[in-house]
C-alpha cells in the first residue's frame, strides 16, 4: 500500500495565486501586474500592518461598543428608512427638475414664456402653456400616486416592533428607534430590523436558518452560525455581562461579503464573516429565536445600499429620435429666419403703396417677428410625443408580463419586463451572449460517473450492486484511493442534511453540483449523515465515522476549487480538495502526486465529449506542527479588516499544494427544453449566438453540437495559447486564412479558453481578435471568469456598434447582463441575482425566441410608426402656417383658431398613434415564430433611420402644401355659398383643419397592418371627435364668454357645398400618391413580410413563402409576361380594407396565386 502524501510548509515557496485571487486571474497566469518586480509578487500577507498605520483607513473602520453607549464622536444614521422619491416640501422643485431635464419640455416652456410677451404670440398666451401644464399634471399625478404608495410602505416598515435589551429587560421598540449597538431578539418568521451580528440562537451551536428572497431572490434557506464564544449567551444574564467591541468594515452594498472582528473582554479577537451576519430584509426561518447586535442601521444597511437606481439604458431608437429632433430644431429656426427676412422685405416693398394699413419700416421688428414665428412653428416638435411613448411602453411591458406563451407552469414563473425603456431594443438584437449552465442547461445535476486510476464506475440503484463497492470489499489494488475519494465526496462540502419524518435525508446545498456529489457518494454507500460547526458524520458502508472540521476554504468562481481540512477518525490531519482540472493539476506533487495523471486526463476528455461536467479530486496529509503554524497565519489573515480576501487567498495557496490526485467525477446537466430549436431559429434570424462558460473546452464544444449551435460541417478555430506572442501569431494566421472574407460572416466557429482570452483582450491584440470573432458565425469562450464575460460583451458592443443582449441565470452573469444593451435574466436554480439585475426576466431560454421575434419585432415596428407618424401629423398642420404666411404678408397671422391648434395633439390626433403603438403588428405571432427571417427588417433598422425619417418629414410637407393650396384654389374667388357670401379666413382655416384631420387619420390607416375594433375607434373616432368639437365649440359664445370668433362656425362650414366636395376630394387626392406607392411596394417590390401577411389574409399555405424575395428588377426580367405586360389582362385584388391595407395583383384564370407568389 502506498504511503500517504505528506505536506511540509517549509518546503513550499510562496507563489502567486493563479486561480481566483483578487487580482482577477483565472486558472492561468496572465500578464504580470504592475507591482510585480523581478518575478516577485507583493504579498498581501506582508501587508498585515501597513493599513493600520494609515489613519485614513483606520477612520473608515466602524467600532461598536457592546453594552455601552456609543461615543458621540461617531455619529451613526438612525434606523428610519425612506424609499420615497419626494416629500411635501421637495416635491415641486424635484419634480420640475426631473421634467425639465428633457430638452423638449424646456423648449415648450420657453415658447410658453415667449407667448406672454405682448404683441408677440400669434396664437394667444396660453395655447402652449395649457397643453404643457396638462402633460406635466398627468406626470405629476402619476408620480404622486406612486410616491404615496412608497410612503405608506415606509411607514408600515418603520413602525414595526422588535424586542430590544434595555437594562435587564426586553422592551418593544419601533424599528425606526433601533440604534447601532442595540442587542435585539428576533423571533421565528420575523424580519430582521437592521444588519445584525448573530450572537446566539435557540438551536445548538448557535445555528440559525434565514431566507433571503427579498435580498437576492433565492428562496432556499441559508445557514448562519454564531461564534462558539457567543453561542452560549442564551439568557439576559449572559447578555448583560457581554462586554467588548466589534470592529467591522464601513457600510457597503456587498451582500455576500463581510469583514469584522469581535474583541470580547478577556478573550482573544475572533473573526466575523458572512456566516455571522443577519441582513435587514431577510427572514428568520425554522429557528425559535436569535440574539443579535446591531451594526448597520437605516440607509447604511446592505439592503438599502443596494437600492440605488441602476444606470439608465436608452434604446437606439430613442437616441436617434433625439438627434433628429435637434436637426428639426435647426429646420424650425431656419423657417423662422426665412419668414422674418421675408417680412422685412415685404414691409419695405409695401410701406408706401399700402400706407393705409399703417406699415412702417422698423428694423427692430425683425427680432419680434423671429419670436413670433418661433412660437408659430414650435409645434413642429410634437409636445405629446414623450407622453405617448411612455404610455405605449408601459402597456407593452404589461403585454410581455401577461404573455401566456412565456409562462412556465412548473415553477409558476411568468416573463417580467423590469424596464419598459428597451422594448423596441429587443427588435434590433444582433449578438446574443449566453451563459451555459442554468441558461442553456437545466442546472439540475445528476451524478453519472466516477474515475479512479484506469477504472470508470457508474451508478446503480442498489448500493450492493455497485462495482465500486464490490471492489472495495474485495481489496482492489486501488481500494485506498476508492475509499479516499468517497470520503472526500461525503466530507468536502458545505451541504446541510435534513431528515424528514419518514427518515429520508434531504440535502440543502448552495449549488446543484455539491448536492449531486453528495448524492453520488451515497449511491456508493458513503452517506453524509449530520453536520455541526465542529464535525461531520458519515455512514461508510454501515460504519459511522466522524471527521472533525478544522478549516473550510470555500469555493468561489474565481478560485474554482474548494478545500476542507479535517481530522479523520485515526487522528490524521488531511486536506481534501476538489476543483477544475486546470486548478488541481498545477497543485499536484511532482514526485508522488501524479500517479494516474495521464489516465485521468483521458477520462476527463471522454467525459467532456459526452457533455458531462467534470471535477478533479485530490488529497494531502498534513503534519500537526505544519498545520498549527499555517493555522496561525490563516487566523491572522481572517481577522484582518483590510485586504482580508486577498490574504486568505494567499494563505490558502500555501496549504493547497503538493496534492495527490485521487480521481475525477462526471455530472450530467441536461439541456433545457427547446434549446436546440431556439438557437437554430436565432441563427436563422441572423442573430449571432456566443456562449461564455466556465466549463471545460471539450464540454462546451459537445454542448455546442447538442444545442445545434455548431453543425457537423462547420470548421472549428481553436485558440489555446500560453503567451501573448503565440496568441498574436494564431490570431493573425487565422485572419490571413480567412482573407477577403474577414469581418464577413463565415461558416466558422471560434473556440477560445480563458487563459488565451486574457491575452486577446489586451490593447494591442483586441482589435485583431474582434475582427476574427465577427468573421465567425459562432464563438464559444471556455473557462472564463465573470469579469471576462463582461469585458467580452463590452468590447464587442463598442466594436460592432450593434445591439447586444446578454442572458444568464447566476450571480456570475450579472456583470455581463449590465454591460449589454439588453440584459435578460433567467429565474433559475442558482437564484434570482441575474433576474433582479436584468431588464427582462424569463423562466426558460426558449422563451427568449418569443421575446425577440414577437415582442421585440412588434414593439420596434410600433415605436417607429409612432415616432414617424407623430412628426408627420404635426408637419401636416403646422407647416400650413408657413404657406399661409405667403398670403398674409409674412406677418405671423394664424389660419386656425388658437385652441384648435393647441388641442390638435392632445385630442384630435392623440388616439391613432396610441392604437398603432399597442395593437399594430406586421404578422401574427405564429408567423413571426415560424419565419425567423421576419426579424431582419427590425434588426437592420429598416423601419427607422435617417433616410426614412426625412422621407416622412418631406411627405408631411408635401401633404401640408396640398392640404392648403387645394382648398385655397377652390375658394380663390371667395365664393363659398350660393348667395355669394364669404366667411373670412377662419372658415377657410376650419375647412383646411378638417381636411388635415381626415388626411392624417387616413394616413394612420394606410400604415396600419393589423386592425382591431379599438384601431377603428381610434382612427375614425378621431374624425368624429373633431366634428363634435366644432359643433359644441361654435355654440360656446355668448353663453360661455370664450371662443367668440368661432360663434356659429359649424353652420357656416357645414352649409357650404364646396366644403363637402372638398371633404371627399382633398384628402383622397392628398393620400393618393401614398396609396399608389403602397400598392407598388405590395406588388412589384413585395417584401417577405408582405408575402407572409398576404398569406395570412388569404389563408393560403405559407410554405410557398419560405424563400426570401429576390431583386425586383431581376424578377421583372424573368416575369415580363405578367409584370411588365399591359395590365388589361390583370384583375385587381384588394384585401379587405378593414383587415389590412395589403394589396396584390394576379392574372385571372391563367396562374394560381400560389404559382405567382412562388416566383417571389
Automatic annotation (TrEMBL):
Active site residues of this protein: 435 (4-aspartylphosphate intermediate)
Stated family: Belongs to the cation transport ATPase (P-type) (TC 3.A.3) family. Type IV subfamily.
TM spans (from-to): 323-346, 366-385, 871-890, 902-919, 948-971, 983-1006, 1018-1037, 1049-1072
Spans annotated as Disordered: 1-56
One cellular-component annotation, GO: plasma membrane
Reaction equation(s) it catalyzes: ATP + H2O + phospholipidSide 1 = ADP + phosphate + phospholipidSide 2; a 1,2-diacyl-sn-glycero-3-phospho-L-serine(out) + ATP + H2O = a 1,2-diacyl-sn-glycero-3-phospho-L-serine(in) + ADP + phosphate + H(+)
GO MF terms held by the record: ATP binding; ATP hydrolysis activity; ATPase-coupled intramembrane lipid transporter activity; magnesium ion binding
Cofactors, names only: Mg(2+)
Binding site for ATP: 435-437, 514, 555, 578, 613, 693-695, 783, 789, 812-813
Keywords noted in UniProt: ATP-binding, Cell membrane, Golgi apparatus, Magnesium, Membrane, Metal-binding, Nucleotide-binding, Phosphoprotein, Translocase, Transmembrane, Transmembrane helix
Entries under InterPro entries matching the protein: ATPase_P-typ_cyto_dom_N (IPR023299), ATPase_P-typ_P_site (IPR018303), ATPase_P-typ_TM_dom_sf (IPR023298), ATPase_P-typ_transduc_dom_A_sf (IPR008250), ATPase_P-type_domA (IPR059000), HAD-like_sf (IPR036412), HAD_sf (IPR023214), P-type_ATPase_IV (IPR006539)
GO biological process: phospholipid translocation
Compositional bias per record (Polar residues), positions renumbered to this chain: 13-22
Subcellular location: Cell membrane; Golgi apparatus; Membrane
EC number: 7.6.2.1
Keyword Transcription regulation tagged: no
Organism encoding this protein: Diabrotica virgifera virgifera
Residue sites binding Mg(2+) per the record: 435, 437, 809, 813
Residue stretches making up the P-type ATPase C-terminal domain: 835-1086
Signal peptide start-end: none
Annotated ranges, domain P-type ATPase A: 158-220
Name used for this protein in its record: Phospholipid-transporting ATPase
Annotated Gene3D superfamilies: Calcium-transporting ATPase, cytoplasmic domain N, Calcium-transporting ATPase, cytoplasmic transduction domain A, HAD superfamily/HAD-like
Main location: membrane
Boundaries of every P-type ATPase N-terminal domain copy: 66-129
Amino acid at each position: 500500500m502506498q504511503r500517504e502524501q505528506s505536506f511540509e510548509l517549509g518546503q513550499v515557496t510562496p507563489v502567486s495565486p493563479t486561480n481566483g485571487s483578487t487580482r482577477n486571474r483565472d486558472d492561468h497566469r496572465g500578464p504580470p501586474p504592475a507591482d510585480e518586480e523581478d518575478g516577485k509578487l507583493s504579498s498581501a500577507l506582508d501587508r498585515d500592518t501597513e493599513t493600520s498605520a494609515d489613519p485614513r483607513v483606520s477612520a473608515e473602520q466602524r467600532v461598536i461598543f457592546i453594552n455601552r453607549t456609543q461615543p458621540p464622536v461617531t455619529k451613526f444614521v438612525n434606523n428610519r428608512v425612506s424609499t420615497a422619491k419626494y416629500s411635501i416640501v421637495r416635491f415641486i422643485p424635484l419634480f420640475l427638475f426631473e421634467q425639465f431635464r428633457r430638452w423638449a419640455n424646456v423648449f415648450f416652456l420657453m415658447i410658453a414664456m415667449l407667448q406672454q410677451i405682448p404683441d408677440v404670440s400669434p396664437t394667444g398666451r396660453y395655447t402652449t402653456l395649457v397643453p404643457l401644464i396638462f402633460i406635466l399634471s398627468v406626470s405629476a399625478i402619476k408620480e404622486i400616486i406612486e410616491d404615496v404608495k412608497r410612503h405608506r410602505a415606509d411607514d408600515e416598515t418603520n413602525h414595526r416592533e422588535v424586542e430590544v435589551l434595555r437594562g435587564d429587560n426586553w422592551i418593544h421598540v419601533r424599528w425606526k428607534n433601533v440604534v447601532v449597538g442595540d442587542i435585539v431578539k428576533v423571533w421565528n418568521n420575523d424580519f430582521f430590523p437592521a444588519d445584525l451580528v448573530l450572537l446566539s440562537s435557540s438551536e445548538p451551536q448557535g445555528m440559525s436558518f434565514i431566507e433571503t428572497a427579498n435580498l437576492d431572490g433565492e428562496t432556499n434557506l441559508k445557514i448562519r452560525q454564531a461564534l462558539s464564544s457567543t453561542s452560549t449567551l442564551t439568557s439576559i444574564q449572559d447578555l448583560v455581562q457581554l462586554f467588548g467591541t466589534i470592529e467591522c468594515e464601513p457600510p457597503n452594498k456587498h451582500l455576500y461579503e463581510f469583514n469584522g472582528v469581535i474583541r470580547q473582554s478577556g478573550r482573544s479577537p475572533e473573526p466575523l464573516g458572512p456566516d455571522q451576519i443577519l441582513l435587514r430584509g431577510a427572514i428568520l426561518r425554522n429557528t425559535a429565536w436569535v440574539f443579535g447586535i446591531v451594526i448597520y442601521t437605516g440607509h447604511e444597511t446592505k439592503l438599502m445600499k443596494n437600492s440605488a437606481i441602476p444606470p439608465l439604458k436608452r434604446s437606439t431608437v430613442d437616441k436617434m429620435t433625439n438627434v433628429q429632433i435637434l436637426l428639426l430644431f435647426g429646420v424650425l429656426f431656419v423657417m423662422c429666419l426665412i419668414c422674418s427676412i421675408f417680412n422685412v422685405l415685404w414691409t419695405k416693398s409695401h410701406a408706401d403703396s399700402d400706407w393705409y394699413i399703417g406699415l412702417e419700416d422698423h428694423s427692430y421688428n425683425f427680432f419680434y417677428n423671429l419670436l413670433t414665428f418661433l412660437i408659430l412653428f414650435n409645434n413642429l416638435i410634437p409636445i405629446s410625443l414623450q407622453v405617448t411613448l411612455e404610455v405605449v411602453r408601459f402597456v407593452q411591458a404589461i403585454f410581455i408580463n401577461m404573455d401566456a406563451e412565456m409562462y412556465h407552469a412548473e415553477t409558476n414563473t411568468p416573463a417580467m419586463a423590469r424596464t419598459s425603456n428597451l422594448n423596441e431594443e429587443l427588435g434590433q438584437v444582433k449578438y446574443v451572449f449566453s451563459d451555459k449552465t442554468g441558461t442553456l442547461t437545466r442546472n439540475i445535476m445528476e451524478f453519472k460517473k466516477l474515475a479512479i486510476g484506469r477504472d470508470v464506475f457508474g451508478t446503480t440503484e442498489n448500493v450492493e450492486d455497485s462495482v465500486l463497492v464490490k471492489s472495495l470489499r474485495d481489496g482492489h489494488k486501488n481500494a485506498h484511493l476508492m475509499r479516499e475519494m468517497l470520503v472526500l465526496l461525503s466530507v468536502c462540502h458545505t451541504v446541510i442534511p435534513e431528515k424528514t419524518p419518514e427518515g429520508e435525508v434531504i440535502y440543502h446545498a448552495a449549488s446543484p453540483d455539491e448536492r449531486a456529489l453528495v448524492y453520488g457518494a451515497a449511491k456508493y454507500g458513503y452517506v453524509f449523515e449530520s453536520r455541526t460547526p465542529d464535525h461531520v458524520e458519515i455512514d461508510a458502508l454501515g460504519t459511522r465515522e466522524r471527521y472533525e472540521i478544522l478549516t473550510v476554504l470555500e469555493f468561489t468562481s474565481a478560485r474554482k476549487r474548494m478545500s476542507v481540512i479535517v481530522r479523520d477518525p485515526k487522528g490524521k490531519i488531511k486536506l481534501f480538495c476538489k476543483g477544475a482540472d486546470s486548478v488541481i493539476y498545477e497543485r499536484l506533487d511532482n514526485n508522488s502526486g501524479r500517479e494516474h495523471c495521464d489516465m485521468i486526463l483521458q477520462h476527463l476528455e471522454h467525459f467532456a465529449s459526452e457533455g458531462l461536467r467534470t471535477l478533479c479530486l485530490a488529497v494531502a496529509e498534513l503534519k500537526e506542527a505544519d498545520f498549527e503554524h499555517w493555522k496561525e497565519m490563516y487566523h491572522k489573515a481572517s481577522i484582518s479588516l483590510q485586504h482580508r480576501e486577498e490574504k486568505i487567498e494567499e494563505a490558502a495557496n500555501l496549504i493547497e499544494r503538493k496534492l495527490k490526485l485521487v480521481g475525477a467525477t462526471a455530472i450530467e446537466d441536461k439541456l433545457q427544453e427547446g434549446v436546440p430549436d431556439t438557437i437554430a431559429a436565432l441563427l436563422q434570424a441572423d442573430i449571432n449566438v456566443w456562449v461564455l462558460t466556465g466549463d471545460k473546452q471539450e464540454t462546451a464544444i459537445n454542448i455546442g453540437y447538442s444545442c445545434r449551435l455548431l453543425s457537423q460541417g462547420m470548421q472549428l478555430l481553436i485558440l489555446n495559447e500560453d503567451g501573448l506572442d503565440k496568441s498574436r501569431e494564431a490570431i493573425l494566421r487565422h485572419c490571413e486564412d480567412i482573407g477577403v472574407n474577414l469581418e464577413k460572416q463565415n461558416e466558422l466557429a471560434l473556440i477560445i479558453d480563458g487563459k488565451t482570452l486574457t491575452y486577446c483582450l489586451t490593447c494591442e491584440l483586441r482589435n485583431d481578435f474582434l475582427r476574427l470573432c465577427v468573421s465567425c458565425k459562432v464563438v464559444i469562450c471556455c473557462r472564463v471568469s465573470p469579469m471576462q464575460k463582461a469585458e467580452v460583451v463590452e468590447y464587442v458592443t463598442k466594436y460592432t456598434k450593434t445591439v447586444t443582449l446578454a442572458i444568464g441565470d447566476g450571480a456570475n452573469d450579472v456583470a455581463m447582463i449590465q454591460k449589454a444593451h439588453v440584459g435578460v435574466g433567467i429565474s433559475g436554480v442558482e437564484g434570482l441575482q441575474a433576474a433582479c439585475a436584468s431588464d427582462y426576466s424569463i423562466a426558460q431560454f426558449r422563451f427568449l425566441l418569443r421575446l425577440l421575434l414577437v415582442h421585440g419585432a412588434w414593439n420596434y415596428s410600433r415605436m417607429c410608426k409612432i415616432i414617424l407618424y407623430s412628426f408627420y401629423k404635426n408637419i401636416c398642420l403646422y407647416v400650413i402656417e408657413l404657406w399661409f404666411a405667403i398670403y398674409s404678408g409674412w406677418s405671423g397671422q394664424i389660419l386656425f383658431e388658437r385652441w384648435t391648434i393647441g388641442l390638435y395633439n392632445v385630442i384630435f390626433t392623440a388616439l391613432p398613434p396610441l392604437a398603432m403603438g399597442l395593437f399594430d403588428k406586421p404578422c401574427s405571432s405564429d408567423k413571426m415564430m415560424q419565419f425567423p427571417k421576419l426579424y431582419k427588417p427590425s434588426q437592420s433598422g429598416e423601419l427607422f433611420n435617417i433616410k426614412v425619417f426625412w422621407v416622412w418629414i418631406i411627405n408631411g410637407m408635401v401633404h401640408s402644401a396640398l392640404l392648403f393650396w387645394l382648398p385655397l384654389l377652390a375658394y380663390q374667388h371667395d365664393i363659398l355659398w350660393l348667395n355669394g357670401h364669404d366667411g373670412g379666413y377662419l372658415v377657410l382655416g376650419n375647412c383646411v383643419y378638417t381636411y388635415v384631420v381626415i388626411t392624417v387619420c387616413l394616413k394612420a390607416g394606410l400604415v396600419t397592418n393589423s386592425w382591431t375594433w379599438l384601431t377603428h375607434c381610434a382612427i375614425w373616432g378621431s374624425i368624429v371627435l373633431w366634428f363634435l368639437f366644432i359643433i359644441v365649440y361654435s355654440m360656446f359664445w355668448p353663453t360661455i364668454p370664450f371662443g367668440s370668433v368661432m360663434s356659429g362656425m359649424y353652420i357656416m362650414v357645414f352649409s357650404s357645398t364646396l366644403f363637402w366636395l372638398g371633404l371627399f376630394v382633398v384628402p383622397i387626392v392628398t393620400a393618393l400618391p401614398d396609396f399608389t406607392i403602397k400598392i407598388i411596394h405590395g406588388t412589384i417590390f413585395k417584401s417577405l413580410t408582405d408575402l407572409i401577411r398576404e398569406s395570412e389574409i388569404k389563408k393560403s399555405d405559407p410554405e410557398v413563402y419560405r424563400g426570401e424575395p429576390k431583386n425586383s428588377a431581376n424578377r421583372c426580367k424573368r416575369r415580363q409576361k405578367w409584370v411588365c405586360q399591359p395590365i388589361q389582362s390583370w384583375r385587381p385584388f384588394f384585401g379587405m380594407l378593414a383587415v389590412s391595407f395589403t394589396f396584390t395583383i394576379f392574372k385571372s384564370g391563367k396562374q394560381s396565386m400560389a404559382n405567382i407568389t412562388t416566383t417571389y
